[in-house]
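Lecture notes, unit on protein representations.

Consider one protein chain, 194 amino acids long.
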Amino acid sequence: MQITLNYTYNQDQLKSAYRFNIFPTPRAKFFLLFFSCVIFGVGGVCWLWKPLTINPLLSTTLKNMMLAACLIWVSVLLAVALNYFYLPVCAFEKSPFFKGNFTVSLTTEGLAYHQQILEENNKRETDGFVKWTAFTKKAENDEFIVLFMGRKHSILPKGSFTSAVELEEFRLFLMEQKHIKTKNFNGAEVWINN
């Protein structure tokens, strides 16, 4: 296998890749909405409900616990919103890694890359090689194939493949790599099986 990809990230692609990492499946958004409704619903019931036969100390403790749970969940929602809306834009504008031209060669030995980084009248180049054994997980959506190395990842836009045959050849190659597991979310694989 010898596939060469040439691509440049734009801001919309980077937003989409970050958002795919946060919500890899439509179920992820559903669970976030579902748990938000449950937590805020139970919190609202606890605060508005006036029981006649419960100990006032127990009632106050229950209300304060639900208030704390709601505040913690609000902070989780704010963190998700920050990662979903602000972080991709900030990463694209401030990180030199996402600017420039990428040339990636996919071979049977590994992934070789060459990047021309363009920063304010400063052009520099970096080269590297990653063996397939370094990758531990893979994920795919309609726009990208993402390869994970621990907490780091490589994002390969599907549009950079010159043909559907090349893309399918690479997908089959990844399927043969038994050490590269498919990323799971809530028991479902994040991989398109055609």
